[in-house]
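Budget justification aside, the reviewers requested a transparent look at the raw inputs and outputs of the sequence design task funded under Objective 1. We therefore reproduce one unedited record. The lines immediately below are the C-alpha cells for a 204-residue chain.
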C-alpha cells in the first residue's frame, strides 16, 4: 500500500472518529442533558411527597418509575391519571401527577408489605394495580415475568375487548395486553441511570 493511500485511510478513520464523537456530544447536549434536567427538576417534589408517607428512601425508585412512564415529559409525567380513576392523561399538571403517583405507590407499597410480597411485585403493581399483589401472594410472593403474564392473561380473558393491544399483533405485549409484564424489569434497569444523574448533580 502506498504512503498516499495510507494517509487517506488514516485521515478517513480520524474523520469518522471525529464525526462519531461530535454526534455523541450533540446527542448528550440536545437530548440526554434536557432529560436529566427534567428528572432532577422533579426530584424535590417527589422526595417531599414520599416524606409524607415516610418513604423518602424510594426517591430514586420513583424517579425511575417516572422515567419509564414518560421520561419526565408532559403534564402527567407519572402517568397517574388511571390510578386516580380518570382517563389516560387526564391529569393536567406535573404537580398533581406526582402527588397522585406517589400516593398510588404508597398504597401499593403498604398493601404489598401487608401481603408479604417482594419489592419487584410492588413496582409491577404500580403498572398492574393491587390485584397483581393478591395474585403474587397466592403464587409464591415473588414477582416474575411468568406470573405477570399469567395475571395479564386472566384480566384479558375477563375484558378481551378492552385489553386487545389495539389488535396490533406485533405489539410485544400481545396477547398479554393488560399492563406491561416487563414493567418491574424496565424500571430496575433504569435505576443505575437515575443514581448516576443524582450523583452528578451532587458533585456540581
Amino acid at each position: 500500500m502506498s504512503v498516499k493511500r495510507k494517509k487517506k485511510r488514516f485521515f478517513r478513520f480520524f474523520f469518522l472518529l471525529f464525526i462519531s464523537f461530535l454526534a455523541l456530544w450533540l446527542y448528550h447536549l440536545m437530548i440526554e442533558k434536557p432529560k436529566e434536567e427534567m428528572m432532577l427538576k422533579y426530584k424535590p417534589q417527589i422526595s417531599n411527597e414520599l416524606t409524607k408517607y415516610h418513604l423518602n428512601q424510594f426517591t430514586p425508585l420513583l424517579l425511575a418509575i417516572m422515567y419509564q412512564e414518560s421520561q419526565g415529559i408532559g403534564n402527567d409525567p407519572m402517568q397517574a391519571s388511571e390510578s386516580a380513576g380518570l382517563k389516560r392523561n387526564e391529569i393536567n399538571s406535573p404537580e398533581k401527577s406526582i402527588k397522585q403517583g406517589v400516593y398510588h405507590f404508597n398504597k401499593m407499597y403498604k398493601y404489598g408489605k401487608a401481603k408479604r410480597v417482594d419489592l419487584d411485585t410492588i413496582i409491577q403493581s404500580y403498572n398492574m394495580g393491587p390485584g397483581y399483589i393478591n395474585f403474587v401472594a397466592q403464587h409464591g410472593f415473588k414477582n416474575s415475568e411468568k406470573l405477570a403474564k399469567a395475571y395479564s392473561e386472566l384480566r384479558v380473558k375477563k375484558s378481551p375487548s378492552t385489553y386487545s393491544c389495539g389488535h396490533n399483533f406485533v405489539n410485544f405485549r400481545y396477547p398479554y395486553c393488560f399492563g406491561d409484564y416487563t414493567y418491574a424489569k424496565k424500571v430496575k434497569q433504569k435505576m443505575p441511570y437515575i443514581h448516576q444523574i443524582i450523583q452528578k448533580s451532587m458533585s456540581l
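Residues 25-31 have pLDDT under 50 and may be disordered. Helices lie at 3-52, 59-69, 94-115, 119-128, 130-137, 145-158, 183-203. Computational costs for records of this kind are itemized in the attached budget.
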